[in-house]
Amino acid sequence: MPPTIWIDGQYRDGASATVSVYDHGLLYGDGVFEGIRAYKRRVFRLQQHLDRLYASAKGIWLEIPMAKDAMGRLVEEAVRKSGLEDAYIRLVVTRGAGDLGLDPRKCPKPSIILIVDEIHLWPADRYDKGLTALTAATPIGHRESLSPRIKSLNYLAHILAKVEGIAAGVDEVLMLDPGGYVAEASGMNLFVVMNGTIRTPPAYIGILKGITRDAVIELARDANYAVEELPLNRYDLYTADEVFLTGTAAEIVGVSKLDARTIGKGVPGPVTRDLSKRFKALVTQRD
Ligand code: PXG
After folding, report:
1. Nearest atom in ligand 1 to 208's CA
2. pTM, two decimal places
């Protein structure tokens, strides 16, 4: 099925879905985005994604030229139009076309781009076996530089980390924050399970506050697991019973090996499997 693409007011086919070479999103990574999923034609946590998109935009002094509720209706319309049962939605707002200088005031109108397509990150067996991972030498950015809370078009630190993983032949990478605490994976948040307690780094250390992360914390608390948000280091991961990652695209995926250490029993553990089951039920639930 071809993707459904909408740019600045018009649906376009793949070949005519283009942006200006003067767009500061392209020239400088000056823009923000969201990755969203729809399950059985229903968009999961749309309001939270819209809230984060508009907060990211505010963080970079970008005014999105569309009201939040209109943006929500547009996303829902595009998903309907795509005909996809289960879809991955990429919503991008760039600074728009300007000149060759940095000054964002030279870009009169931000561009809004919406793509409805599918996404598959790993072969299906990784969900049964768990991912192999390493700690990347590339840390995430400092929270007072470009805040990792802003889902911006600057993903180079995460891509460089990903390249380290590819070069080493592992599935995924974990990134540290500049202080050496474990932050997140290249496009996922991280959880550990130790003696039945679930722990995850707090958003304030400087990570993307994932919408899947928030959903998993809620699900876990509803299921009476103890959940703690606290800084973690690599020792906490190496000695954990389970490590798993969460993200819109990845959903919930276990880590079986990290930095050549086997995590737990070397396969996704019971808490990871239980939460995956609960997450699947949540995303397809009708209220
Ligand atoms: N951390 C980072 C740095 C992310 O980019 C997450 C955590 C998880 O957040 P959500 O809200 O999705 O639970 C993300 C997610 C990919 C990919 O290829 C991932 C993301 C965006 C684009 C692609 O894995 N973001």
Report:
1. 1
2. 0.97
